[in-house]
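@channel sequence for tomorrow's demo:
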Amino acid sequence: MMRTHSGMRSLIDATDEKPKITWPLLRRVLHYAGPYRWLIVAILLLILLRAALLLLTPLIIRHMLDRTIPAGDTRQLFLLAAALLLIPGLNGIIGVSQRRLNARVGEGVIYDLRRVLYANLQRMSLRFFTNTQVGEIMSRLNNDVIGAQNAISSTIVGIVTQFVQAAAVVAVMLTLEWRLTLISVIVMPLFLLSARLLGNRLRDIARKQMEANAQMNAMMNETLNIGGALLVKLFGRRQLEIDRFSGRAAQVRDLGVKRAFTGSIFMAIIGLISAVGTALVYGLGGYFVIIGAFTIGTIVAFGSYLGQLYGALQGLSNAPVEFATSMVSFERVFEVIDLPVDIPEVTGAKTLKKVRGEIIFDDVYFSYNNKNDNLLSGVHRYGSMDNVTGVLSGKLAEGGEGEAVPRSQARAYALEAISFRAAPGEIVAIVGPSGAGKTTLTYLIPRLYDPTSGTVRIDGHDLREVTLASLAEHIGMVTQETHLFHDTIRTNLQYASLNVGQKQLEAACRIANIHDFIEELPDGYDTIVGERGFRLSGGEKQRLALARVILKNPRILLLDEATSSLDSKSESLIQDALEKVMADRTNIVIAHRLSTILAADQILVMDRGRIVESGTHETLLAKSGLYTTLYETQFRKDEKGGREETADSRPQTADGRPQTADSRPETADRRQLNLHFSH
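structure tokens (generated this afternoon):
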């Protein structure tokens, strides 16, 4: 039987534009197949064995018709009949074994590629993720990796199988009767021409159907995620979305019907052309039998071989496109693997051990890289509608100032001539209008970005000369947008320190003023927080983030203290938690509250990427500059709410001085945590 289904699929997947295959690409592909070379050798041997078995059946039938039956040899007849039963059984066993080996090779390649890809993506800088669509990254990890797996375990194996089968069948046919073999091959051009013409039309329909499917899937993704579902409900657009979805689903349905109808015509014509070849073989073969040129058994054997030959040649006709398409998947995978790291770790980088917490910015300039270098290229997957652009061209990329950052920034430098020193244990408050560069400045400390020029130091060490792992160990950051995994509260907290026990979890949560809330939940610390923590309020998520950073116990704390969207109770709990969290650490705080500003040892006032003023609350007010304007427009609302604070109202030490980082008391919970981490 001819493999018309696989042939139809390959014609659908084919494309007029064929990607290029180079020897360096092939060599690299073979490198990933290298660990499985003995399995591949075994697969090839099984292919040869299966091809030999397929050749035996027509020869046995020929022998039965021409010799055994005319001779009346019943013993030999039963033996040959048993062989006809045994061959399919052996073929099935070999096929199962070959499929198992194919799966081991294919899944092994998938594992190897995904592991390398994921590891390399984890090394990429924040810039890469703010300029790359998540869907494209997922596509590389899924679609392209599977395509690469198919190149090794399916496409190459299929090509070899079809080539071996076609060559073997032609060789046997030539030994039986060269004239019938020539007749069989003469029909092939007509067969291939018709298949190509109908295949082009079928492929166009398939492309439209894939495009319609993509639009339908995009709509489902937009409206069935938690944010989209909430928006639909809030605006009462349920019926509108149902109607929109119905329209797109109907388009998919209609194209599916058209594709099935065209496919049936395609298969009917293929069957008709195949019948022409078969009719010629049996017609001319019958004539040769009549004149005594050869036997009836030879004609029957030729009929069987003819189906095998047409199926193999049909598969081989599209093999170049199928193989090249699979190679494109490897190219896309290798592109990610080969991406250079924006934030490299120098050879012989130092490991930060005990950190005092001194931070120095020395004439730092920083500019967001607006070029597309070191980013993913646009993807054209041949024979597929899964063609997307890798980078967010013309869109806003998330990052920068705690909000969307344009890929083309408004000024030449996001930060200019930034110089300041944060002494160990100090609180440095950063204030300024939106877009001043506050969040960008904090991103340089954990090396989410590197300065364009200038130096950032911790305890005298240039950050570019220390290991990224040790740097991350000593820095804790609480961003304005708290991210929680769709998992339990316990798992989200233990992300900071994998080996902490229940007592340490509870101690950290008490400091963050969230323990009592967790205890009231039905499942306590085993409560699922939902997608991105959506089941929790903003204040609850922020307090969990504070508890998580307490468990990490960093020496340096970076904090975006955004409480403007919280209710007064949540804000009060967070402010109380902040006082405990910031004790005994070096704190860089993007301050939104007057209480934090008054508690700061140093205030940096930023505007358009520069530090325009610095000092304490009183000295800055005396300058009547930008800080005074901010105070009058933003911070004095605390006073109107009855929460006016001054330097004299800050917590004081026993000798009457305002309490600083070095003089804050240690709570019982903090002593318990410090005891845990000291061991």
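heads up for whoever presents: The first helix runs from residue 4 to 13.
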